[in-house]
Amino acid sequence: METLLKSGRYIFAVAILAFGVVQIIFARHAAPVPQVIPWLPEIPWLAYLTGAVFLGTGVCIASNLRARLAAMLLGMLFLVCVLVLQIARLADNFASGGARTVAFETVSFCAAAFTLAGNLSDEGRSLGEWKSLANALMRSGPYLFAISLVVFGIDHFRAIQLVGGLVPAWIPGSGKFWAYFTGVAFVASGLSIATKLLARWGAFLIGVMFLIYFLALHLPRILTYPRSHNPAELSSAFIALGMCGASWICGASFRGSGAQ
Predict the structure, then answer these.
(1) Assuming Cys at both sites, which of 50, 156, 171, 212 could form a disulfide with 183, CB separation 3.0 to 4.6 Å?
(2) Could you state, in order of their start, the residue ranges of all structural domains in the chain?
(3) According to the model, what pLDDT value does residue 259 have?
(4) Are the C-beta atoms of 249 and 9 separated by less than 8 Å?
(5) Calpha distance 260→250 (Å, rounded)
(6) Rounded to an integer, what distance in angstroms lies between the CA atom of residue 175 and that of residue 193?
(7) Does residue 87 contact residue 48 with C-beta atoms inside 8 Å?
(8) Is the pLDDT of residue 143 over 60?
């Protein structure tokens, strides 16, 4: 388990790099840009800019080149997306499970980036006078991630038929059963992380579930992308992969017997 938790950083970096690549590829389209990354406005120049930020921070995190600073900058980007875009969208359409999912996916990636920064070694004065604020954001990461997991779980319960319909037919058991199962897993993992009760196990197992999502649900679908012409499939796939990495980053942040 320990090795996989440590790998979360690199899985997260791969997902961020993938976001950068697809942002830049689809920024070439005339406005509105196909919404490959659902957290951002459909504006070409902004797609290029955020794509470059994703590529730069992803490389830094993966190569350990000013990785802590890169993770903080990435977390700030996601935080701006939450404060400027997602809160307003959620206020206008709070009853929509889709709107909540997009909002709390953004919160999850924000939380993972801040948590990762807290996991990495101090880079001296790299955060400068913002160090106190940065420390507060880093400490908040696991709790923001836990809240997001609980919201995902509740939304699974509210959309059992929809979620169950996404389960491939080759997986044994009914789709409805797996929808309930994943909903319980989200809530249980979120509570585990928030209370620090078996937090490492909770984060590890929910990361495994996201990895299964990526391999069993999303990867087969993105392999059909040239025929389906649906770039949103790329977004869903790499969000799932990034959430796997985010979960293991969160798990790696806990120390001590109580969090085992």
Answers:
(1) 156
(2) 2-259
(3) 62
(4) yes
(5) 13
(6) 27
(7) no
(8) yes
